Automatic annotation (TrEMBL):
It comes from Microcella alkaliphila. This is Aspartate--tRNA ligase. Pfam families: tRNA-synt_2 (PF00152), tRNA_anti-codon (PF01336). The keyword Ligase applies. GO terms for biological process: aspartyl-tRNA aminoacylation. ATP binds at E369, G417, L418, A419, R420. Residues 143-446 form the Aminoacyl-transfer RNA synthetases class-II family profile domain. The gene is aspS.
Amino acid sequence: MTRTLIAHLSPLPDGPVEVAGWVETVRDQKKVQFVILRDETGVVQLVNPATRDLGEDASDAERSAAALTETIGGLAHGTMVRVSGDLKHDERVKLGGLEVKIGSLTVESEALPETPIAEDSSLDKRLDWRFLDLRRPEANLIFRVQTTFEHALRTYFVDNDYIEIHTPKLMASASESRAELFELGYFEGTAYLAQSPQFFKQMAQPAGFGKVFEIAPAFRADPSFTSRHATEFTSIDAEISWVSSHEDVMRMHEEALAAAFGAVVAKRGAAIEEAFGVELAVPSVPFPRIPLAEARRIVAEGGYEIPRADGDLDPEAERRLSAWVKANHGSDFVFVTDYDSTIRPFYHMRHEGDASLTNSYDLLFNGVEISTGAQREHRVDVLIEQAREKGLEPEELEFYLDFFRYGVPPHGGFGMGLARVLMLMLGLSSIRETTYLFRGPTRLTP
Ligand code: AMO
């Protein structure tokens, strides 16, 4: 008989079934035993009439029933078992109105009797035992939501004629700030882990690919221990040709997000509300757009002083701006646009006629930055000048600068952290919860 997933038991008629999963609890009573069995889809109650204290003249059937009783009585939490039995619908059973009467039970893999984590374990301890932590249905749901979200994004990109690319994660130079660069020995020389597919997704533009996307790891040697930073994270990147400004990028970005949220709400909305108490809505587009200068004003008028008046919004300012946007525009999302060129990388295009501002944006969702996007500078002479201004040596960037010497369409794109989107979507407090295996300054295992 083939195994039935626990969530698929309910519509089946009473009769023989096989289920498999891990033991949550055993209630071993004198005359009857109950096992709560969980698999990746749900829980079901198993029942076995106990057979004990056999006399000398017990039959073979009685002896095997007694052996089954003993096995069940000794099952530790987490033990993986396969069970054949009889499904019976019974309204009196609190757990889903059904139970399986055990016919035979095979222990496939025993668990040690003491589970190393409990419900009240610290997040760090849970991450030490991530494979056990992930057995929680809420944790399982996070990654089902992630799957739906990513799938919907991919569908959006594919339906809109994007090409999916896979760019190398070993690089000869930095692509973002040099301060956050992982360096590693590479035969006789040095290589760096890609901080972003920035240069290579841009390369797809002179390559004539038009629209590209990538969902892949990015690495940052960021020593911080905040709830939103990891040293390795999954980055969702897109880059498109023939944009007139960052407005074209934002339009594509919000459309992709609305489509992906739509899919998550439709497929997982009810489960999300039940597990996390979050009533997820499909965001309406366009998202509000607020130039950074105005965002700073709004935050200042609200009584908060940004640490560096000409710098980026800090986390508190992001929270305050998002609260203002929610109150005044009813949106959980906001594009903060037109960043000063002093706080943007050399490859961002600057405003025509005002080089102090860039054609760029950050996207905030529920108070936290989830993405950066921009139109890129595609005029090679301007690009070289901007690189020099940022203290970069054009010689180090020759391979990148070559992309702009043989014809390149105006282009732009964005990078977005997957774990951050999920954290904010589900109202969780750290990307450690929404990353399958978190990597930080002091965490390289499991
Ligand atoms: P940026 O550096 O702003 O832009 O990164 C884009 C998005 O990636 C996520 N992110 C991170 N997530 C977890 N841990 C980190 N250490 C981390 N660093 C970044 C955030 C962030 O908004 N090349 C540009 C994008 C572009 O212009 O296309 C870039 O990488 O969600």
